[in-house]
Amino acid sequence: MSDTAIQAPKTPDEHLICAASDIFDGGAFDALLDTKPERAAIVSHLKEAQKAGRAAIASAFRADPFASRPTTQAYAFLTDCLVHAALRTAQTLMHPNPNPTNGERLALLAVGGYGRGEMAPFSDVDLLFLTPYKITPWAESVIETTLYILWDLKLKVGHSSRTVRDCLRLGGEDFTIRTAMLEHRFLFGDTALAKELDTKLRTDLFNGTERDFIEAKLAERDARHVRQGQRYVVEPNVKEGKGGLRDLQSLFWIGKYIHKVQDAADLVPLGLFTDDEFDAFVAAEDFLWATRCHMHLISGRATEQLTFDLQVAVADDMRYEDKDGRRAVEWFMQDYFLHATEVGDLTRIFLTKLEATHIKAEPLLERLFKRKPRIKHGYQVIHNRIAIADDNAFLEDKLNLLRIFEEALRTGMLIHPDAMRLIKSHLNLIDDDMRTTPEAQRIFLDLLLKHGNPERALRRMNELGVLSAFIPEFEPIVAMMQFNMYHSYTVDEHIIQCIAQLAMIERDELEEDLPVASSILKEGVNRKVLYVALLLHDIGKGRSEDHSILGAHMVRKIAPRLGLKQDDIDTVEWLVRYHLLMSDMAQKRDIADPRTVRDFAKAVQTVKRLDLLCVLTVCDIRGVGPTTWNNWKAVLIRALYRQTRRALEDGMEALTREGRGTEAKKTLRAELADWPRKDLQTETARHYDPYWQGLHVTAHVVFANLLRDIGENEIAMDLHPDEDRDATRACFVMPDHPGIFARLTGALALVGANVVDARSYTTSDGYVTDAFWIQDADGNPYEASRLPRLRKMIERTLAGEVITREAIKDRDKVKKREKAFRVPTHITFDNDGSDIYTIIEVDTRDRPGLLHDLTRTLAASNVYIANAVIATYGEQVVDTFYVKDMFGLKYYSEAKQRTLEKKLRAAIAEGAERAAQ
Questions:
Q1: Any idea which fold 14-207 has?
Q2: Strands 727-735 and 716-722, sheet pairing
Q3: pTM score, two decimals?
Q4: Which of 4, 166, 208, 580 is 20 to 30 A from residue 726's alpha carbon, by CA?
Q5: Residue 883: half-sphere exposure toward Cβ, Cα within 13 Å
Q6: What are the tens digits of pLDDT across the range 9-31?
Q7: Residue 849: its pLDDT value, please?
């Protein structure tokens, strides 16, 4: 049997593989085999060499944290050494066969990623044992022993034993197997057998099936992207996600399958990539591999999902630093998303080059009857994509760099990648002179306003760099990640998602979900102002200053360049400055308090502004992520809008407590028409004004029935799904005593319920009526089938059978992936936002049990909590409490405020320490 020696990969950093070479250097391994040791001794020797080799590679990589190429080659070489040692042990020591027959030939090949000679620290080792005929007992013993040694070394080995005929048959049936064999690399054993496989794969399997292979790889890629999500998801899969390593590898597989190239550089002379594009390919590949290698080393295992905690650790290992008001992890992830975007561009360019000869055309009948749009002069249609007829003529007019996007929207066609190449390489033509021409302004605003799907043009303009060339202030937020659990997209993609939401509302696609926003747009608003405000609302992100204030200042420079008149500029500036106002008021304040609505109405001033801000707020929240908008937020926004509009149209006196209370009592009497008049009088007289304005009549009815039937010292409870708010309403009635609100929040925390809103009212006859709106751990209302068990657990807790503070310790934990977030604690006292109460706002890190800790602390300080409003933004929570002191007064004293703040901070710190354990 011929046996070839392995060769170390030729890398710029040969020292990376020196430790791996020690397995063989100086004949040490040969000498070991000569002693005929037990397998355990050999495994021990290999483990030491493996440990030394891995340590040397990891050390060199950490010293040069972007040197991914020599690192992946070094890990592959180290694996080669271990595999060779295992095979030699099996062949020469365990199962010697000095005179093998022709049928006992054996070749060992690396396949898949290992076959490419690229491995992350804990990549799988994919092996193919190749035999000429049916496997013999000797070969079976050699293979089994080799695998056991590799398993003893804790290598994750994927293996198969096949003949050449098996390889051809299975490769013809399964494109995954075919792809793995496409990248086979001969390791050791019979070279003639390996060469036979190589020849027959090309002649009998690959040749003539190029089109099928391409379409299989594209279908596989599309399915993978559906599973993993888009490239802008905040915890991307570095290997399988969109814009990840698998996409780059797919390009190389297709190039190798069709053109027999052995290196990606060989695609340049073939015209599939320009030199600049190949440089981008290499840069993206190096960055993604470096990221993946660091992830493996940090985790101590194969991991491909770049989770929040790993993002921080990888950014640190790659030596990113905090600067300009942004964390190191945000700079790292911005680079990640820029490379992912580049991978998408390269994929489009590469695949388009192959279309003419290797991708199936549309069916003939479809082509005959498909209506083709009339294309304007200067363009042509290639494979149903807009292409440029004459590059030189196109570039003679700078405005064509914008016009082509308008033509794409008008015709509904995609832009040909050759045209994209031309645009991307001539962005310098978009200068100050071009930006301020009326025609450029018209084209850009028409892209937003005229064709019905502006997000398509904006996304492609953004990916090609046209958007940030036309609006230079946009460039810093391109691919900018906001390191939190609330935002699902990068800042630029969030903006485009917001504009997509607005376009969908205008197309009447969301009328059922968004009746108020839809009716506002149907009544008519200044669309130009609304679209430009959405485009610029987060333009100030990423700086140390408040992005709303900074963005408003930037509007003064940007909006005139877009051709807006001064009145419109002023409105856009106001919308950008206050684009969070309505969301904050609705989610962080008690909108049942007339003072909240009055203050909001004074800030908005006109119905015109209210309409614009309402639509902008809805689009902004919906553009944060696919699950951010829910019925709870919808109810709050609609209620605030309707009450504020009424105040602006009918006057502030329409918001008086007395008037709303009288109306609520009248509604309750109608609902309880079968009650005796005396009972009705008792019910309506026992509650104070805030009760009537703070709850819907459905809750009034529930409390009326609970109070009517309550026994002495009884705790009455009603749990009911509130589908309109995506929550379960939990109503409690019991004799009033200090600390009851905290006891209730503890009981709810103990059963794993998340409180999203809470209201507490005392009656004139000594009862307390508390209403909580709760959700389960997934942010959904409790199903009706779960309510009896939930009720029983709450009853046990309130009865004192469970000591809440002790029991909650086991549940009060922050998940590992969430520990990397920094959320500073801010506590404010507001005596102007309510006529009756002091508003304490606690902005801090969310965790289970937080609300209970805060309410328990307030109760221990003799603070009466009237209601609590909870707004959650991923890992951040804003708990707002409407409170009085024990004498029914506001907390005006700064000394009392400081004392209370100190106690709240101590409770937060104590709970955070408990959660981190």
A1: Beta Polymerase; domain 2 (3.30.460)
A2: antiparallel
A3: 0.86
A4: 580
A5: 27
A6: 444 355 455 544 555 554 667 66
A7: 83
